Amino acid sequence: MTSYITVSQFGLIDSIAPCSRSAGASSGGGGMSGPADDRLVFNATWHDERAALLRHFVLSYYVDDGTLELFEPKLRRVFLRRSAVDTVAADDLWVGARLNVFGRQVELTDYGTEVTRRLLSQRTQRTLAIVKPDGVANLGHILNAITLHGLKVTQARMVRLTRAEAETFYAEHAARTFFPKLVEYMTSGPVVALELLGRDAVARWRQMMGPTDSEAARRDVPDSIRAQYGTDKTLNAVHGSDGAEAAAREIPFFFPAERDAPRPRGSVELCGSSTCAVVRPHIVRDGLLGQLLAALQAADSDLQITGLELQWLTEARAREFLEPYRGAVAEFPALAAELASGPAVALALRWPCQGADAVEAFRRVVGPRDPAIAALLRPQSLRAKFGRDRVRNALHCTDLADDGPLECRFFFGGEES
Ligand SMILES: Nc1ncnc2c1ncn2[C@@H]1O[C@H](COP(=O)(O)OP(=O)(O)OP(=O)(O)O)[C@@H](O)[C@H]1O
To answer: Which residues contact 151 (CB under 8 A, 6 or more apart)?
Structure first.
């Protein structure tokens, strides 16, 4: 779990006082202590599936001891008394974040105080990154570099841009001589769109990318992403928003707030050699997603990722996905709870050279279900390297050959080309 921040780390004040709430938020926060406490306050919602109700809360995070309180303004009552919640740390708090509060997915919808807004808006800046078609083969390494630089991946989707989408996205370059080549390149294969979050994310990601021209990058900034994974001026592995305004425009292009709004289509191509994998939330939480994907991509150059999406399943969806294991696997309830405990990364994989045996071949890459047994029998397998126990065993992979496309559809339903 990420480390706690302290008020002194904010370098600000020694008291965080509540102030006027933004529209829609209730004032007060029953059960909260006086105005001199150190807390971060948010408006939050929780979709109560049993009551089929979206419930609204004021969430207070007490910086001094990392405890959390939920107040329900509508009913004027404390819903969760100030408690230690070991699945939530200060670094997990930003508008748009979803938290696991004792198994409930609580979403932070707005800042609850101006002080919270001032403290967090700079340290939770967002930017759009794109891993371009020539960068996708090194997706794992690029994601690992992002994590090592302290940026969080808060949304991720692999998409296949149409010509019209690429032209719209790069419209500012329409008059440039390189434009047709740029559009051809961006539509030549799947790309992975990422929303990155962190302090000065826009500038930091651009610094990590390096100069536009990959040759110049190799000469001047050899440890930059473009130096390592780019080819030339056009084929340069990654994109980054060039400012906060551009980020605010570009993020919704790939990740619109409205569920049904138009967005580039997913890239999934299903066939007989398709299989599905789900990187479990504990890997994402521990910042190991990049390392695991790098190991997966290194397993065989013919193994292709054709679909990828960061998704946080509700417990009901997690149980639905794992239904075939109910009664057959003793850990079923724990597996479902883990799968719903935070964002997971669904992958659609294609392994053409393995044909109909792709599912079985990929299971060998993943290794036995129990990481302790995997360490003995298949020490190079993903579960031997990244698994912790029979529940937190790094990733799910399709069991039966016929189920590959079926499981892919569960996550990427209807998106395949
Ligand atoms: N002179 C050029 N010749 C060929 N392609 C170019 C040239 N300049 C830019 N490009 C391509 O167009 C993209 C957009 O150009 P821009 O000037 O915005 O570069 P950038 O800001 O470094 O990259 P990006 O916008 O992709 O993050 C570049 O990333 C590159 O793929």
So the answer is: 196, 197, 198, 201, 204, 205
Q: Give Cβ neighbours of residue 142 (< 8 Å, ≥ 6 apart).
A: 131, 135, 225, 229, 237, 238, 290
Helices (H) and strands (E) in the chain, counts: 17, 14
Q: With CA atoms as reference, report the closest residue to 251 among 158, 108, 134, 155.
A: 155
- ipTM of the predicted assembly exceeds 0.90: yes
In a domain, 242, yes or no: yes
CA angle 407, 409, 415 (to 5 degrees): 155
Q: How far apart are the first and last CA of the chain?
A: 38
pLDDT greater than 80 at residue 131: yes
**Of the residues 254, 283, 315, which one is the last residue of a structural domain?**
254
pLDDT in tens, 76-94: 999 999 999 999 999 899 9
% of the chain beyond a pLDDT of 70: 90
Does some domain include residue 209? Answer: yes
Nearest-atom index, ligand 1, CA of 239: 27
- C-alpha to C-alpha distance for 22 and 40, rounded to whole angstroms: 14
Residue having the nearest C-alpha atom to atom 16 of ligand 1: 212
pLDDT digits (tens, 9 = 90+) for 251-270: 999 999 887 888 999 888 77
How many angstroms is it from 329 CA to the middle of ligand 1? 51
281 with 405, same domain? Answer: yes
